[in-house]
């Protein structure tokens, strides 16, 4: 299709007429957005429809990425960029006197994820399409995404994220491809023709209706599919023959119950993890996705034995781990494959990615719940466990050993164990994380199946995180090294030659300043706080969690506050500390830290003796679109988790790509960032994983004793309970001195020193700029295109 300015203009006219029976220019701004987005959707639809041909389904291996979360962010602009229509659309907007940025405000934001894991899934979809891998997403179409955060009196208040309220242009409902999901009931096994056939009676059926979202590849005519399932009651229409008010209200109740399944995304939270509705969600989308994949392949005449050559299923964390048992169920009960063959097929098809080593985040389900909700699937899990345990027993002749790896123990199912036993590949998301998996968390499994374990360091898509979010930097890079880096971000490396080129470095500095101005304006609009664009923008944005140590950052700010007040000769380059973070609704400590940041902020920002040096800003309701403004406008990226606890981190890579320097611990992908850019171009501090391991083993960390030798820090900590900040922060105080498992105080001094070092280097503008350029140059290594190529080759058996 040849798209020209004229064509877009005439399509806008046509679509306006069809949708609103009006001339385009006579419609409202919001309607104009919808018309425009519909026209763009039309352009991509041709290739979307053709995807089957493109990929020669049945001949080329397909990948299905199963994930409970896809944190997509707004899609209009990235679709335009990937379709190669950016310049043309700009021209059209100019001609019509319109503004694309204004249109973007009306673009719905699917925030269907909690944080890193969901955003990674979105970056992976973008990369699979862009490098031409037939990879599709499978998830849930939640009516409500992650809660909306408001800050009232410095505290987090949660509200619903009604992201669908004005519709979502990019999706297409595919009712005719709906699937039936069975819950509850009883199973009896009946022997017929040599097979044990399960007879399922008394079950409830929920209808899973698919909504497809196009995933547009970058300039390559590929459009993949993200399929999100919505839960509905079966048979939407009422039976008017048997209609009476009694059955009507019963139906209403059933409808409400059924639709609850896809009502909302759970905020990751230990207290929520045991909820039945969450388990229902997991089985719901796993079953819908697998049934649709199998029925599609069966219709194409592909036999189960050929499934491993035809498709691969990537399990994103343990949330879709029921895939293993459900796939077995389909193969055995519906396709009549014998157990042993079905098991071999399952293992070849499935692969599992682990995203956390935090024990409280490891999914476990009580067998009573599973047995009741999905009785047949439970029987299969039991059988998988029985066979696996027998094998392990045969190998070690030691029941203790068996119990360490058992899938079912103490009447709970360990979902990670199920995922490992049923997959041919298990991967961590950074070198350090994978090492911890094989040496510690899954050590016993590594001994059993060393060949299954591998590392795939996370990545980010430069299309959203540079081309879209930092247009000025994109253009400058084009001018200096040409355009080819956009297809191959590894070529950003060419920028390294310019790290000593003063005029180039000044341009980089100029772009940063412009982005800081945009961010400053945004901060003003969001918080009413005025910030100085010449100060260092020091940014800490991610979920609020103990291990991410926002607390260490705010303690450092309190420390500076005191120094400024007490030391007449105090000086530093002014700094603006920027935070944005959502806390899980039931995570009390995290919520208190939000309150503390806001309270300290009020004190600092209102005190003229202090605010000439430091200011503190908390931007409410962190989201993908806010990240797209915050990250390009930052100078310093805070990646200060307790070593060993952040599996990878991905915002670290986004900041790097946008020319912010990192202050970080040797944790997750920071380790590899240091390797890539060299230790002189990153600010690493703090205890390493192995050192912390020793401290834990010897139990040699005593915060109270530690504070005795650090009087200044002690005063800071005491301020948490002496009323300086208004509220009661004694819970944070107690957390810090009662053997804090995140070692905040232990790493504090080196953190402080590193900030002092940064202060000095920042004043040497040439040095700083040259470090910035080196970081941008090496950031291409962390492109998710690289990551996906490795998944394709080493896990999915696809050579691209
Ligand atoms: C889950 C939970 C649930 C229970 C309460 C506490 C808690 C804390 C963390 C989590 C994490 C869930 C998995 C996750 O999002 N992991 C993140 O995955 C990213 C992509 O691989 C990775 O970059 C982050 O380091 C990792 O935390």
UniProtKB/TrEMBL annotation:
- Mention one GO molecular function: 1,4-alpha-oligoglucan phosphorylase activity
> What InterPro entries does this protein map onto?
Glycg_phsphrylas, Glyco_trans_35, Pyridoxal_P_attach_site
Q: Taxonomically, which superkingdom?
A: Bacteria
Instruction: Establish whether keyword Transferase is in the entry.
Output: yes
Query: Which keywords annotate this record?
Result: Carbohydrate metabolism, Glycosyltransferase, Pyridoxal phosphate, Transferase
Name the enzyme group at the top EC level. transferase
Q: Which reaction does it catalyse?
A: [(1->4)-alpha-D-glucosyl](n) + phosphate = [(1->4)-alpha-D-glucosyl](n-1) + alpha-D-glucose 1-phosphate
Q: Name one Pfam family in it.
A: Phosphorylase
Has UniProt tagged this entry with the keyword Glycosyltransferase?
Answer: yes
Q: Which Gene3D superfamilies match?
A: Glycogen Phosphorylase B
Q: What is its EC number?
A: 2.4.1.1
- What's the cofactor? pyridoxal 5'-phosphate
Chain's role:
Phosphorylase is an important allosteric enzyme in carbohydrate metabolism. Enzymes from different sources differ in their regulatory mechanisms and in their natural substrates. However, all known phosphorylases share catalytic and structural properties.
Into which family does the record put it?
Belongs to the glycogen phosphorylase family.
Q: What is this protein called?
A: Alpha-1,4 glucan phosphorylase
Name the source organism: Psychrilyobacter piezotolerans
| Encoding gene (name) | glgP
